[in-house]
Structures are given as C-alpha cells and as structure tokens.
Amino acid sequence: MSNVYAFLADGLEEVECLAVTDLLVRAGIKVTLVSINGTKEVTGSHGFCIRTDALLTDVNCSHADVLFLPGGMPGTKNLAACAPLADELIKADKEGRRLAAICAAPSVLGRLGLLKGRKATCFPGFEAELTGAEISSAPVVTDGTVTTAKGLGCALDLGLELIRLLIGGEKAAEIKAAIQYK
Fold it and tell me: Taking the model in full, what pTM does it have?
C-alpha cells in the first residue's frame, strides 16, 4: 500500500488539502496528516480547524512514498519557513520519492531548487518562485517524481493524478466515476 504524508501548517487552503487526501483514501492509499506547527490542531486560512494524525517531529518521512504540500496563505509561507520540512523534501527528492504541491506551495519546491529542469505549474503570480522550472499553464503537471497543480479548482485533478501514479489509471478512473467528476 502506498503511503502519503500531507504537511499542514496554519493558514493552509483547507479544500486543497482535504480534497486531495480524501481521494487518496478512497483509493486505498494510506494518508497521514502531519502538522509542522508543534500541535496537532491546524487552523486553515478560512478558519476551519483540522486535527492532524502526527507532528513532523514524530514521523519518519522516509516511510512516505509521496510528500504533499497543500497551498494557501499564509500556509505556504509557514511551510517554506520550516527547516526540518525543507530537509525532508530535499532528501525525498534525492531518493527519488514523489513530491506533490498545489497552488502557492510549488514555490516551496522552487526555492529549494527541486524544480530545476522540470515542468511545473502553480497559482498565477508565483511563477517567479519556481526557480529553474519550465512553467506550464496546465492544471496539473507531472515531471518525473514531482507533481504540481494550479490551485483549489484543480485539487480533484491532483488527487486523481496521484492515484494514477501510485496505483494506476484504472483505479483513478474508478474513483473519478464514483465521485461523479466530469
């Protein structure tokens, strides 16, 4: 079974996180919501409180097949400011494990140099922070082991893409049909 760690910070875009992780769970993928805040309670940019499964200090990120960053503001800034998370993202990339980010969060990967030479997308206005990336206007882009998405409206597409990558196209199509998505 695949294992995805979703990293949550105060100020995240709630739907970007929960829509993606909900689809992954429906596909049978194990998802662990990981707080970088030092508390298991994370408050999103729209005031919704999410209880996470674990703290960053309590997980071994090497156990994850995918490290996922939801966007939102100031959630993305909080993710970018977390040095232990940056270390884990760099390590995962070096090990060839998957990284995924949506909305403003691809900028975290860009600032770490993890998008150099790769196609990537992000929320409009953050393109300059995707250092070294070939910018795409597509809703979701996978280049090698990195998958990026534009924003909340693309969250279902990102979830389905991750299912396709981790389990296969047939399972992604099954989930897409089950949720009555276009």
Answer: 0.97
- Cβ 154 vs Cβ 140: under 8 Å: yes
Instruction: Give how far the C-alpha of residue 29 lies from the chain's centroid of Cα atoms, to the nearest Å.
Output: 14
pLDDT at 182 exceeding the cut of 90: no
Q: Which two tokens stand for residue 14?
A: 């709630």
82 a catalytic residue: no
Confidence of residue 1 (pLDDT cuts 50, 70, 90): confident
- In the block, tokens 């991750």 appear at 162
Contact, 9 vs 56, CB < 8 A? no
Please tell me which residue in 17, 49, 61, 103 is annotated as part of the active site: 103
DSSP code per residue over 76-135: HHHHHT-HHHHHHHHHHHHTT-EEEEETTTHHHHHHTTTTTTSEE--STT-GGGSTT-EE
